[in-house]
Amino acid sequence: MVSGALPGFRDFYPAELAERTHIFATWREVAHRFGFVEYDGPPLEPLELYTKKSGDEIVGQLYNFVDKGDRAIALRPEMTPTLARMVAARANALRKPVRWFSIPQLFRYERAQRGRLREHFQLNMDIVGESDVTADAELLAAAIEIMRLLGLGPDDVRARVSDRRILHGYLLAAGVPDAAFGGVLAVVDKIDRQPRDVSEEKLAALGLGASAVRAVMDVPEQTSLASIQALNVQGGEAAVAEFSRFAEYVEALGGGEYLQPDLSIVRGLAYYTGIVFELFDAKGELRAICGGGRYDNLLKQSGGPDLPALGFGMGDVVLGELLRARTLMPAPAAGLDVWVAFGESAGVSDAMRVSSRLRARGLSVEYALGGQQLSRQLKAAAAAGAREAVILGAPDVAPDEATVRRLDDGHERRVRLDEWIDEAGPAASARSPTHS
Ligand code: HAM
After folding, report:
1. Residue 77 Cβ contacting ligand 1 at under 6 Å
2. For residue 374, how many C-alpha atoms fall within 13 Å in the half-sphere facing its CB?
3. How far is the CA of 75 from the centre of ligand 1 (A)?
4. Which atom of ligand 1 is the closest one to the Cα of 319?
5. Strand partners, 258
6. First and final CA of the chain: distance in angstroms?
7. Higher per-residue pLDDT: 262 or 267
8. Judging by DSSP bridges, how do beta strands 119-128 and 98-102 pair with one another?
9. Which residue from 182, 305, 388, 406 could staple onto 411, CB 3.0 to 4.6 Å apart?
10. From CA 390, how far away is CA 412, in angstroms rounded?
11. Three-state SS at 157
């Protein structure tokens, strides 16, 4: 017998699914508030969609196979190449800027570690067709708004922001040869996760001299707007001015308290070209909650028009861990509205008729599927978390009447059944459970 899910895959029992639903609902709410519309794509894609665009790290983690038609296929590890393909195919017909979001399940054969699984759900919000930095600010503000709506403040989460063009200019000015830029980015990406001497050795192996190595090792020190503005950035002056405007706009959109300039944020993916950002728990204990940035060349590389683009992905795994750690997951939703029980002079078909009428009014209703003693039915009603039980056919009750019992305090009252059903509805159930 198979005893569990595959390593890195999750079973969502109802309690866990309720948590996931809470996260998804917040994602959808904020996407809606920011005027994004939802799309989706296929979970399987041609392998080459990723081998060409995603960068080595993701390509090494692909779940791929050859299908019965000899096609090389991959399970999607990220959404961005699909989005680029879809927008490129209809670029002329779409109103721009495109503001789209999606919540795909993604698959990466990762080394198991805290916060990293082999499947996860990821909110993707992307804007296509806008090169101005207002779009970068709008996107980060949306990611921050999600944190706020979930109850996570600037003491819980930091939005670390950088710009690949500024880093490029800084490295050029420090004497790092252009050809080594990709390799240096990979070292910077891991600089706070690996020992200093390992980073230094890797940089030397890329052909960097001692002063260039020192300059790279200093990148994580650049953690304020002022220090970044003061850097010598060969050819990156316009990017620094844009970065300053970006910070100003994020502030205007209400996200300023979360903002943390940090030049060491480079992002692992190959396609980013400008401002990049990642959201982290403020204590720095967990992996990134969210990552994204500008990828102005990807649509063209996907065979589409030359349209600027930017976006982010926010996973459900680290976010869920953080919300649980801060006890910010809501209590499980209330159970049933009504349990329909039946005593001696009523049968299951009476309960079915009443249930059917209550359900038509929008209430959530259950009754004992197998015939049971009334006392056992009422125990089952309590176990199901029902707010009220309506008891049909109790010994001393007239045929057109019923007893309604509140299950929290056992209070009972006699009602005329038809009238009570006609008045029942979700609005009534949303009122305080003590209403009578
Ligand atoms: P990414 O940084 O690879 O970016 O992933 C974004 C977020 O997804 C991460 O910050 C993390 O929360 C979550 N995530 C990624 N891999 C895993 C995993 N194995 N287990 C759990 N959570 C994970 C991208 O995927 C880009 N395509 C995002 C993007 C959209 N850029 C532009 N538009």
Report:
1. no
2. 15
3. 15
4. 12
5. none
6. 51
7. 262
8. antiparallel
9. 406
10. 10
11. strand
User: pLDDT at position 29, please?
Assistant: 98
Span 204-235, pLDDT tens digits: 999 999 999 999 999 999 999 999 999 999 99
* Pairing outcome for strands 365-367 and 388-392: unpaired
Q: Does residue 406 contact residue 382 with C-beta atoms inside 8 Å?
A: no
315 lines ligand 1 (CB under 6 A): yes
Please say whether the beta carbons of 140 and 124 come within 8 A: no
311 vs 43: CA distance, rounded Å: 19
**What is the position in ligand 1's atom list of the atom closest to the CA of 61?**
19
**Does ligand 1 lie within 6 Å of residue 110's CB atom?**
yes
pLDDT in tens, 129-157: 999 999 999 999 999 999 999 999 999 99
Q: Kindly state if the Cβ of 116 falls inside 6 Å of ligand 1.
A: yes
Q: Is the CB of 318 under 6 A from ligand 1?
A: yes
**pLDDT of the residue at 178:** 86
Query: For position 427, what pLDDT does the model report?
Result: 47
* Residue 404 Cβ contacting ligand 1 at under 6 Å: no
CATH architecture observed for domain 14-325: 2-Layer Sandwich (3.30)
Q: Which atom of ligand 1 is nearest to the CA of 126?
A: 33
Q: 45: closest CA among 24, 73, 4?
A: 73
pLDDT of residue 434: 35
Would you list the domain boundaries of the chain?
14-325, 338-429
- Does the beta carbon of 160 sit less than 6 angstroms from any atom of ligand 1? no
What superfamily does domain 338-429 belong to in CATH? Anticodon-binding domain (3.40.50.800)
pLDDT for 271: 85
- DSSP per position, 197-257: HHHHHHHHHTT--HHHHHHHHTGGG--SHHHHHTS--TT-HHHHHHHHHHHHHHHHTT-GG
**CB burial of residue 369 (10 Å; 0-12, 13-18, 19+):** exposed
Specify burial of residue 286 (Cβ count, 10 A radius: 0-12, 13-18, 19+). middle
Q: Using CA positions, which residue lies closest to atom 10 of ligand 1?
A: 290
Residue nearest to atom 11 of ligand 1 (CA): 315
At 44-101, the pLDDT tens digits run 999 999 987 666 677 889 999 999 999 999 999 999 999 999 999 999 999 999 999 9
394 CA distance to ligand 1 middle (Å): 58
**Average pLDDT along the chain:** 92
CA 207 to chain centre: 40
How far apart are the C-alpha atoms of 4 and 34, rounded to whole Å?
A: 40
